[in-house]
Structure formats: structure tokens, C-alpha cells
Automatic annotation (TrEMBL):
Protein name: Bifunctional aspartate kinase/homoserine dehydrogenase I
Reactions mediated catalytically: L-homoserine + NADP(+) = L-aspartate 4-semialdehyde + NADPH + H(+); L-aspartate + ATP = 4-phospho-L-aspartate + ADP
Gene symbol of the encoding locus: thrA
Pathway named in the protein's UniProt entry: Amino-acid biosynthesis; L-threonine biosynthesis; L-threonine from L-aspartate: step 3/5; Amino-acid biosynthesis; L-lysine biosynthesis via DAP pathway; (S)-tetrahydrodipicolinate from L-aspartate: step 1/4; Amino-acid biosynthesis; L-methionine biosynthesis via de novo pathway; L-homoserine from L-aspartate: step 3/3; Amino-acid biosynthesis; L-methionine biosynthesis via de novo pathway; L-homoserine from L-aspartate: step 1/3
CDD domains xrefs: AAK_AK-HSDH-like, ACT_AKi-HSDH-ThrA-like_1, ACT_AKi-HSDH-ThrA_2
Database matches in SUPFAM superfamilies: ACT-like, Carbamate kinase-like, Glyceraldehyde-3-phosphate dehydrogenase-like, C-terminal domain, NAD(P)-binding Rossmann-fold domains
Organism: Compostibacter hankyongensis
UniProt lineage: Bacteria, Pseudomonadati, Bacteroidota, Chitinophagia, Chitinophagales
């Protein structure tokens, strides 16, 4: 004997009911005895509740009533043979008339009792099941409509009635015994009390009906046919990477469904568990898939937990005060009060000091619960033994569940680590004494992010996704996008890293795609689907999306962008940048960045601020963390200046060398922008700060390369004129150096916390003597590298190497 239960979507349309009939047929062909349980057509229960509310409010409900009738008629006309349609349509009309009478009654008195509401909502299952029974009868004459109100007996708690198990079992058994051949088509959800009045088993209760029937007749299997492939690791609507679990235990299913996994109604597990009947969740829309088996013992599957679920709306009630310490009676009074008033407590935590108790309840109960508590403990409140209960709203509960968790350490560590790293604040924690469940209360607007993070941490730790927000698609920005595109597959395979480009902006346009912008097409998509760029909006949308592992890449040189860094850190967003304006601004700002980064546990990576892709910042940081002490840093950190002095030798004129540098595109359009040393100074400042010195721009001693007259020239041409006029000055510098066997180098030095940049003549014992081309070079003299400094040398500019440096920093954010 198998029980086949079909949910709302499975009876929701002509097509799905046709599939349903096929599933029943194949099961019967296996030679199985079958009973079918059906829900109302998808959306009809809500529609009935809405009509009831309309009637109560004195409004007209006929539009909806018409719609409901129409949906059922459509199914009858499409699926029932024409010659059999009449009696079916007749019965539908009878149901609709009864329903209309009930609604009219509600409208007339302007009052909707819980009892009447149950009678009204029950019509959804009556109509759908009747039609399914008639349809099945066409092929199987033994198919028979069964009104579960005659079998399932409950108390009168309308809306969520409790079942009289013994009586129900008996009635079901009798019916099956008396009709041994019948293929019963049973209405889900509805039941009746001892007076025969309609009651309902709670929203989603058709699953429970199936389990009650299955348990009474000791069926071999209870199949729950729905619209997903089975019980999944998380709600697939919230976590796109959730996957189907082949097996799960009754206990795990109970815990997960109690904490919001709506795939099956929690009480369903109880009758099935008592008789050890497996529940199998199957997909009506993918019937060949095996689905999930819920049974007593589910195999371990290599994951620390079985699944994650959540309740999106809860309120917390906090009780605090000395009145609770050591008083066993206190919690007893509190809980029996709330139970008496029918307020469901979703979760409880109590500090071990017993000084406070926190309860999570549904928001609709919060105000009432607070009032009741205040009334019950009036005396304690007056005498100051208890503080006025506080209610916190806009919260959610996230629960991780698994029998494996018992006696396994590291589960909470992993959970809190995943949440903490992404700035999800945990308001309360509860662990069931069963140790099958750890639940945390978090802010509601963190829920989607938290579910995905936690899912990633427990189930997909192999693959990590970085959600990237990208600003600046100039030379470097474009190059980096190309590099990422070319390297995507490699990163996925070798680093288990997926880069999800969520948004790209330049100064004109911006483009957002939460699922990721395909990098082959970003330019076209931006042209076709881009919106006008707006920095403020870009930043605020990035924060509002609240995605896990968010990284902002700043490829600009703009101070406006830097102004947003602090707020991004506070929103748990990491920043990777080649923009050095941030770190070389005021020291106060630099310190604020560092503090925020530490506080929020995010990454702030800026290797390319100094020497493009060369490992300079990294080397410095590695020296410092390994306990070395920096004694002296010497550096040439401007490719342009490097080139100019490397070439300024023999019989070459300074003028000619600068001309050549400009022609080669090494200099800014006005070479003085490089020769002023400002950019070099910024880099030295960053090195000094990263070495631990609170240096400001004004503290840097800089010796100008150019005589005053060159700086005064009003145009680039005029500037080159002055270079010719000052030729003797440059010749003298060069010749004096050459006479001593030396070369000229413009060198930045950090020593004793002081930064200077000077033109120096150095001999061949100096590591910078043999420098050539436009290379950058840096020499660290430290406690460990004393006699011979640690030297890093190589190209310190260019889109390709700079982009690569930013790229490497981005990948580091994944660790
Ligand atoms: P039915 O109408 O068939 O009873 P429900 O809507 O009650 O179906 O339950 C199925 C839905 O449960 C799925 O469509 C899915 O969105 C949701 N759901 C929530 N959590 C889970 C989970 N962990 N696994 C599978 N589905 C889930
Ligand atoms: N039709 C009812 C509901 O929507 C029962 C069910 O679908 O299980 O809640
Ligand atoms: Mg359901």
C-alpha cells in the first residue's frame, strides 16, 4: 500500500493534474494498492481566506468566487470525458453554492468565527479532490472520492486542530477494510470535531493527512509529490545552490521544517515515525527523479550538517532582572503563561547567570506576549526585580540542523566564522539540548546573505564565490576585466574560486547583474543595458544588496571614491584598489581605514599603490609580521624618473632624455607632473605608514629635480625651452658624478621615521647603480637583512602588470 499525496502545484493546472493521473496509473500498474491525498489547487486556500475576509468586511467576494469556480471548471472541461462532465459540474456547483451561502452569512453578520473560517477554507480540498477522483475513475472504476472529515477526528481548535489518534486510526482502518479494492481519493487538510463540524489541520496540513492515513493502515510508503526535487539543503528560493538530499532522518526533517523548511508540514513526521513508515518526497514535474527518503536512520553524507532553514519574521522578547536568579519557579510561570495563552515560543535562550531570558515569538504575538508578561509579573516589576520586557523586531532565525552535529566539534565555529566574517551580527543563540540544531537570531535584512554564506561554508566550501563591484574601466580596468575573463576557468578549477562580477561602472554608465555579468560581453551589455552612472547610488546599492564576500575594486584615481571606503568597510565589504589617494591622504584617514578594516574583519588590499604589480607592500608586511625591524628603505618608485636618470649619461643632454621619455609615453603629457616627484612622494608616504610611522605629506623632505625656472614655465613647450636654458646646470650634475665614477639617481629614503627624496650620486657598490630602463627598485635594510639589503626590482608601471597586481589582491580576498 502506498499513499500518494499531491500538493497545491501538483493539482494546480490541467497539465499537472494530467501528470498526477499518470503517476497514479504507473503506481497501480506496479500492482500496488494506492490511496491518493490531494491539496486544494495552488492559490485556492489563500483565495478562500481572502473571500472570507472580504465577506467579514462587508465587501463583495463574488469576483474571487467566480474565479475559483472558473479554475475548477476549466480542469473539468479539459480532463473529464464530455459524457461524464455533467454530474461533476453539478457537484462543483453544489460546493460553490454551499460556499456562497457561508460567505453570505459571514457578510450578513459581519463576523467571521474560526469555526466558519475552517468550513470555508475546506472547500478548496473538497473541490480539487472530487475532480481528481472523477478523473481517476475514468481509468480505474474503483477510484472513489473520500471526504476526510468522516475519518479524521479532532478537537475544536479551529485552524490547527489536534487529532484524536485512536478514533481516527479506527475509522480509517474500517473504511479500508470495508472497501478492499477502493482507490480512495482523500481530501487533505480537512477534518472534523466530535460534532461533525469542519476543522483544519493547519496550513500545509495535507501532508499530515497523508501521514495519518498511511500510519493507520501501516502503508509501506508515504509519497509527498510537490514542485521540487526533494528535501534540499536549504530553501531553493533563498539559496540558489541548494541541492537535494537523498536521505534525511525523521528528527532532522522535524527540526528543519519546524524552523521554516516549508517543503513538508512538521507534524507529518510524527505518525510516520511511530510506525517507521518512510516518507518519500518526489517532484511531480520531474517524476523520474528519486527524491528524498525520510526515514529513521539516514546515512552520513560527509557534511557536518544536514540542512539549513529559517524563519524570516520573528520578534525577540528580552527579560532581565535579579528576580530570575536562582528562581526555578520563574521560568515555569513564564512558559505556562504563554502556553495557556496559545503563544508559540519559537526559541529560548537563557544566560547561565540566569539574569536574563530571551524568547523568540512570531511578530503577531509579540505585543500580546509582552503585555501578558508585564501583567503576570507586575509585582516583580514594581519591586525592581524585573525590568520592563523589551521587544526587538525585524529579526529572523536561521537554524543549522543535523544528527551528525552531536558530539562533533567545530559546527558552531564554522557557523559563527561564516557570519562574523561578513558582518552578520548574531542577536541570540540557542542550541537544542538534542544537539541536532543550532539556531541564531539575526537581522531580517541579513537573512538572505546569511543563508547563502552558511550554505557555502557547510556545503560548498570547495567553491567560494567573490561578489565583485567594479569601478573604473580605463586602461587598467579594461585590462583587468580581460585578465579575469581569461583566467576564470583556471581559478574555478585550481583555486575553487568563482568571481561573480555583480556590477561595473565608469563615469558614464553603470550595470548591475546580481547573477553575474558575463565578462565576454560586459562592454556590449553596458552599452545596451547600462544606466546612467551615479557614484552615490552605486555605493548604496552595493551595500543594500548585502551579498556575501563582497569586494569593491577601485581602479580610479579619484578622491570622491575614496571617501566611501570607510562606509564600505563598515558594511563588511572588502576593498581592493590601485588608487593611492586613499592611503596617501591624511594620516588620520589612513589610520581610520586600518581601524575599520580590523573592526569589521574585511580586506583592504592595495599592493599596486606602490610599484604596480611588484611585491613591495607584501614584502614589507611579511617582514613586519615575521618580527623583522625595518632600519632603512631606499627606493626609486617612479618609472619615468628612473628612465630619465638611467639614460642621462655620456654625451646625452637632459633635454633629449626628457623628450625621449615623453615620446615613448612614459611621462604624463606635462613631464613636470612626474618630475615634481609628487606621485613618488605618495608612494614613500604609504611605505612609511605601513612601516609604522605617522608621517604626513608635509613631513617629506623633497629636493626638487628641476630648477625653479623650469617649474615656472607656463606651457609644456616653454618648459622644454627652460630645460635647454638650464642645460649647464644638468651637465654639471652629470659630469661631477661621472668624474667620481658615479651615476645620478633620484632616491627616496625612509630612515628613523623620516622620509626624504633626493638626487644622489651613487657608486657601483650601491644596488641601484646598475638600474636600467624604467624599472622601479626598492631595498629594505632590516635587522635580518643588514649587510646586504633585500631588493625588489622590476617594471613598476603599465596596465598589464598593474592589473595583474590588483587581480592577485582580489584572489587574496577569497582566503
Ligand atoms: P506543496 O504545495 O506541494 O505542498 P509547498 O509549497 O508546501 O508544496 O512546499 C514546497 C516548497 O517548499 C518548495 O517549492 C520550496 O520552495 C519550499 N522549500 C522550503 N525549504 C525547502 C527545502 N529545504 N527543500 C525543498 N523545498 C523547500
Ligand atoms: N491547502 C492547504 C494550504 O494551502 C493545505 C495544503 O496545501 O497542504 O495550506
Ligand atoms: Mg505543502
Amino acid at each position: 500500500m502506498k499513499i500518494l499525496k499531491f500538493g497545491g502545484t501538483s493539482v494546480g493546472s490541467v497539465e499537472s493534474i494530467r501528470t498526477l493521473a499518470g503517476i497514479v496509473r504507473s503506481t497501480l500498474q506496479e500492482g500496488q494498492r494506492v490511496a491518493v491525498v490531494t491539496s486544494a489547487m495552488g492559490g485556492i486556500t489563500n483565495c478562500l481566506l481572502e473571500m472570507a475576509a472580504q465577506a467579514e468586511a462587508g465587501s463583495d467576494f463574488h469576483v474571487l468566487l467566480q474565479k475559483m469556480e472558473q479554475r475548477h471548471l476549466e480542469v473539468i472541461k479539459a480532463l473529464i470525458a464530455v459524457k461524464r462532465q455533467n454530474p461533476v459540474i453539478m457537484q462543483l456547483k453544489i460546493f460553490m453554492n454551499e460556499l456562497e451561502d457561508l460567505l453570505q452569512g459571514v457578510k450578513a453578520v459581519g463576523e467571521l468565527s474560526a469555526r466558519t473560517q475552517d468550513s470555508i477554507v475546506g472547500y478548496g480540498e473538497l473541490c480539487s479532490t472530487f475532480i481528481v477522483a472523477q478523473l481517476l475513475q475514468q481509468d480505474h472504476p474503483d477510484a472513489r472520492f473520500a471526504d476526510a472529515r468522516l475519518w479524521i477526528k479532532t478537537d475544536s481548535a479551529y485552524g490547527h486542530a489536534r487529532v484524536n489518534q485512536e478514533l481516527t486510526d479506527q475509522l480509517i482502518r474500517d473504511a479500508f477494510r470495508d472497501n478492499p479494492a477502493a482507490v480512495f481519493c482523500i481530501t487533505g487538510f480537512v477534518a472534523s470535531n466530535e460534532k461533525g463540524q469542519t476543522t483544519t489541520l493547519g496550513r500545509g496540513g495535507s501532508d499530515y493527512t497523508a501521514a495519518l492515513v498511511g500510519a493507520a493502515i501501516e502503508a509501506e510508503e508515504i509519497q509527498i509529490w510537490t514542485d521540487v526535487d526533494g528535501f534540499m539543503t536549504a530553501d531553493p528560493r533563498m539559496v540558489s545552490k541548494a541541492f537535494t538530499l537523498p536521505e534525511i532522518s525523521y528528527t532532522e526533517a522535524m527540526e528543519l521544517t519546524y524552523f521554516g523548511a516549508k517543503v513538508i508540514y512538521p507534524p507529518t513526521m510524527i505518525p510516520a515515525f511511530e510506525k517507521r513508515i518512510p516518507i518519500v518526497i518526489r517532484n511531480t514535474f520531474n517524476p523520474s527523479f528519486t527524491g528524498t527518503v525520510i526515514r529513521e536512520h539516514a546515512h552520513r553524507n560527509g557534511h557536518l550538517i544536514r540542512g539549513i532553514s529559517s524563519i524570516s519574521d520573528v520578534s525577540l522578547i528580552n527579560l532581565q532582572g535579579s528576580g530570575m536568579v536562582g528562581r526555578t519557579g520563574f521560568s515555569g510561570r513564564l512558559f505556562s503563561l504563554l502556553a495557556r495563552e496559545g503563544i508559540n515560543i519559537i526559541l529560548i535562550t537563557q544566560a547561565s547567570s540566569e539574569h536574563s531570558i530571551t524568547l523568540a515569538v512570531s511578530p503577531k504575538d509579540a505585543a500580546n506576549a509582552r503585555r501578558l508578561i508585564a501583567a503576570e509579573f507586575e509585582l516583580e516589576l514594581q519591586t525592581g526585580k524585573l525590568e520592563i520586557p523589551r521587544v526587538e523586531d525585524e529579526l529572523s532565525v536561521l537554524a543549522v540542523v543535523g544528527e551528525n552535529m552531536k558530539h562533533t566539534s567545530g559546527v558552531s565555529g564554522k557557523l559563527f566564522n561564516a557570519l562574523g566574517r561578513n558582518g552578520v551580527n548574531v542577536t541570540a543563540i540557542a542550541q537544542g539540548s538534542s544537539e541536532y540544531n543550532i539556531s541564531v537570531v539575526i537581522r531580517k535584512n541579513d537573512l538572505a546573505k546569511a543563508l547563502n554564506l552558511v550554505h557555502e561554508a557547510f556545503f560548498l566550501s570547495r567553491i567560494k564565490t567573490l561578489n565583485v563591484f567594479y569601478l573604473g574601466v580605463g586602461n587598467i580596468g579594461k585590462t583587468l576585466l580581460r585578465q579575469v575573463k581569461d583566467h576564470e576557468a583556471y581559478l574555478l578549477e585550481h583555486n575553487a574560486l568563482r568571481i561573480n562580477m555583480v556590477a561595473i561602472t565608469n563615469t558614464r554608465q553603470m550595470l548591475f547583474r546580481e547573477a553575474g555579468i558575463p565578462l565576454q560581453q560586459w562592454e556590449r551589455l553596458m552599452q545596451e543595458g547600462g544606466e546612467p552612472a551615479d557614484l552615490e547610488q552605486f555605493i548604496s546599492r552595493m551595500k543594500a544588496m548585502n551579498l556575501p564576500n563582497s569586494v569593491f575594486i577601485d581602479n580610479s584615481a579619484s578622491a570622491d571614491v575614496v571617501n566611501h571606503y570607510a562606509s564600505l568597510f563598515a558594511a563588511s565589504i572588502s576593498v581592493v584598489t590601485c588608487n593611492k589617494i586613499g592611503n596617501s591622504g591624511s594620516y588620520e584617514q589612513y589610520k581610520a581605514f586600518k581601524a575599520a578594516v580590523k573592526k569589521h574583519g574585511v580586506n583592504f588590499l592595495y599592493e599596486t599603490n606602490v610599484g604596480a604589480g611588484l611585491p613591495i607592500i607584501k614584502t614589507l608586511q611579511d617582514l613586519l609580521v615575521s618580527g623583522d625591524k625595518i632600519m632603512r628603505i631606499e627606493a626609486i618608485l617612479s618609472g619615468t624618473i628612473s628612465f630619465i636618470f638611467n639614460e642621462f649619461k655620456g654625451d646625452r643632454r637632459f633635454y633629449d632624455v626628457v623628450k625621449e621619455a615623453r615620446a615613448k609615453g612614459y611621462t604624463e603629457p606635462d613631464p613636470r607632473d612626474d618630475l615634481s616627484g609628487l606621485d613618488f612622494m605618495r608612494k614613500m608616504l604609504i611605505l612609511a605608514r605601513d612601516s609604522g610611522y605617522g608621517v604626513e605629506m608635509e613631513d617629506v623632505e623633497i629636493e626638487p629635480i628641476l630648477p625653479e625656472s623650469c617649474m615656472q614655465a607656463t606651457s609644456v613647450d616653454a618648459f622644454f625651452e627652460t630645460l635647454l636654458q638650464e642645460d649647464a646646470y644638468f651637465e654639471e650634475l652629470k659630469q661631477r658624478a661621472e668624474r667620481e665614477g658615479k651615476v645620478l639617481r633620484y632616491i627616496g629614503v625612509l630612515e628613523d621615521g623620516k622620509v626624504s627624496i633626493r638626487l644622489q650620486a651613487i657608486d657601483d657598490r650601491h644596488p641601484f647603480y646598475a638600474l636600467s630602463g624604467s624599472d622601479n627598485i626598492i631595498a629594505f635594510t632590516t635587522n635580518r637583512y643588514t649587510a646586504c639589503p633585500l631588493v625588489v626590482k622590476g617594471p613598476g608601471a603599465g596596465a598589464e602588470v598593474t592589473a595583474a597586481g590588483v587581480f592577485a589582491d582580489l584572489v587574496k580576498c577569497a582566503n
